[in-house]
Here is the input.
Amino acid sequence: MIGLYRPGNSLLHRMPAGAKLLLLIVAIVAATVFVQTPVQVGAVGIAVAGLFAVARIPWRVAVAQLRPVVWMLLIIAAFQVWLTSPARAVVVCGVLLVSVALAALVTLTTRVTDLLDTVTRSLGPLRRIGVDPERVGLLLALAIRCVPLLAGIVHEVAEARRARGLDWSMTALVTPVLVRALRTADAMGDALAARGVDDD
Here is the structure.
């Protein structure tokens, strides 16, 4: 769900990271509050697709950013149809899809280091109440790194499961993924401790 930076010279690539983060928050809040009908969802979707075109992001890359949330959206849509109506399901799932697409667009057009530097600078005034901006930046960097790392683990385990003819066994997927994720977390924690991250 977190896109890798794709170099470019578009307007979105040249925009400061702080401005993009602020516009992302405003856009998601506005979509959540003001988009109330399937027609409005379609209009917003077209606008977001236009932004991807402006950024010159290939459509295959854009689709790849949205593919991981499809199953989640299908489950949410089923519940919304059951509890409310099909129209409401389209609105809820459409807003979620647009939000994910906008977040992906920001990460595709912004270097991770620029995003982290912006967050660290923005949190600077909070030092007075005990917030450590560098630690928050490190946390975000680890989160960004761990998303594709965990996705890679799931993919590798799924491939191994299929090779053993265990396509329908959830145990054969979940258990190895959990074990490998915990081992990776332990190794990462040891590496951080060895570099003095836990030192006060």
